[in-house]
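User: Assemble these into one structure.

Assistant: Restating your components, then the assembled model:
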Amino acid sequence: MELLKVDSVEQALDKLAACMAGWPLEAGRVPLEAAQGLPLAQDVHTEEDIPGFARSTVDGYAVLAKDTAAATDSIPVFLKVAGKVEMGRLAGMTLTAGQCAAVPTGGMLPAGADAVVMVEYTEPFGASGMALSQSVAPGENVVQRGEDAAKGALLLPRGRRIGPAETGALAAAGVVRVPVYKPLRLAVLSTGDELVPPGQVPGPGQVRDINTHALVALARKNGFEVAHTAVLRDDEALLEAELRRAAHTCDIVAVSGGSSQGEKDATRAVIDRVASPGVFTHGLALKPGKPTILGVDDASRTLFAGLPGHPVSAMMVFELLFCRLWRRLTGTPEAPAIPAALAANVAASPGKLTSWPVRLEAGDTGYRARPIYGKSGLITTLAGADGYFTIPRNAEGLPAGSLVWVQLF
Amino acid sequence: MELLKVDSVEQALDKLAACMAGWPLEAGRVPLEAAQGLPLAQDVHTEEDIPGFARSTVDGYAVLAKDTAAATDSIPVFLKVAGKVEMGRLAGMTLTAGQCAAVPTGGMLPAGADAVVMVEYTEPFGASGMALSQSVAPGENVVQRGEDAAKGALLLPRGRRIGPAETGALAAAGVVRVPVYKPLRLAVLSTGDELVPPGQVPGPGQVRDINTHALVALARKNGFEVAHTAVLRDDEALLEAELRRAAHTCDIVAVSGGSSQGEKDATRAVIDRVASPGVFTHGLALKPGKPTILGVDDASRTLFAGLPGHPVSAMMVFELLFCRLWRRLTGTPEAPAIPAALAANVAASPGKLTSWPVRLEAGDTGYRARPIYGKSGLITTLAGADGYFTIPRNAEGLPAGSLVWVQLF
């Protein structure tokens, strides 16, 4: 892996995006419930005025505002009650000067009425009269037709991930078949003669397969569909067969493992046999994450990735490349990062983007970010990391107290 | 709803927690994949040393460190190659002085060896010799047995929500049946004669049912199981029957709707008929969210909530009471809040906790929080809110530029 061939993370991301430039993302309409977490594939506009009629925002009496001009606490005005508006029904009457009508919160304003006096300022008077002790301006206690959202207004932009609030907005606008990007289909393959399933006690020289499980969880959380997983012996023929099979059904095939040079070389050779034009990134200027290989097969429209064997590195590379690729392609904004004060000095690697897993510690005035990466800190890192921050390629290390922006996992 | 009976949010939360104090949360072991997003029901400790054997962290040659003491770039030391360690296998040899053994990254150190020289500093010499041009200290390029996590160490604390990193840690420790709290079962009932399903164009006086969909999405995102939903006419007998049914299968029954005083009174009356001791909170000192009713039925161990009819208010109350209740009961920390500079002046309500939905705007040095709540801003609020911040009960309003902490939805 010659240094000259190493890409920066941004270069690698640009190359991945360029590979997919000619591959239209799959989009389709899905029910509101199935759209949770997916990004909108297009701008969504309202198709009608919301609300579709003038509504009262209070319990009270709909009036012609000018009839109430003289009303005060001590000298009310007297209006004739013309009727009662029922919830969910056409008001079904037209108010003229001197008339009012009972209307509940959310009820439709009768024609002629242009304001509502709250029930607290009214008192029945005689058989069909009402004394009103407050004057109201036109429009008072009323939401006008289309005031919330006018027909044709932009409701939600392309790329917005559907969460609870977006769900409410779409329901309000009657968008029950939501245009979303379908998740990319991902295969996660882990290789290594030393791997045993997590449920098994490792024998001498063996370790549990961590990467499959951590990467699957990370990918799903970020909106990928995990279509295939496999744990393989170190066997080029086996890996080749598995890559060919996965390329048929998946958009991205990620191979993690291969911590030794021989295994990395084998993964690269196999991707080059299976994919054309094949491997285009031979290592990343990223710490940790250098031993990353990226390739593409144009015919089957499949991206291939050889991820580092170290679980934290593999997760970081998947996050920095593929989760960001997905957000870039779909126009989804990055999630807000948390500013925090570094709790310890950290080193940077000259010429490389350095990523540091951290644990956030809440204080009264803000957060402290405690770096938790170390030589042997696999479990500690995995168990303790809330997120990570990065130090740019050509920056020095950072002293304790520096402001860093923590991206949550 | 007398002012004297109104609870602060904290009082209401304490009362809800007190109601559930005698109800053990349901916990159980689920497969790693099914544990995503759920909180751990107990501390998880490692059951063995990790790694279970001393491993090399590089490709190279395992050695007795003292044999390399004299090695330099110009004058290497010469050792006899005693064998080759295979990945995933017992090293199967014991090194003695003057010997070394090839070992891949992650491979097991042979007995007798205490360090590894990287392959870059080695060169074959003769038939079975190796020239090593670097001296290593004992433990160099080695992860010792139990160095990552010693047997019995705390791996993850009770209350931690299982995400990708936790998944990796649990897989590493062999915890494939994860002890988690089972989600609380929730019923979401929406009432109102004016409601039509979102897929339907509202007739005169009608509006679409927003609350069911927004609350279901919010609840699921926060780890609740939505066991039952229904949209009901304004009919006390209907509501009563539905509440009785839901109380059998659910832990929490949330009734949203009832924007008029008559409907609110009806909801309260029905909860008091169905539940014993019944309603204990008659309104919240919260804006928006005042018309909130809370009750409990001890026999069926069910909490009842009458939520405001306004979707944003209903979501806010559910978040501030029930999502926080769940995190408090399970020991789950609140998610980190985002500090932001207010983009506009906001008002507070004397004597009430005021919550303001905001949109986050990213800048070079931090975030600005743009308040988006207003009289008619239902759709705008739902479509635009990234989260919210709160102003304490007795605080004044806040001027633009103030620091606020935004909790994401």
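Residues 3-26+182-330 of chain B form a domain with the Molybdenum Cofactor Biosythetic Enzyme; Chain A fold (CATH 3.40.980.10).
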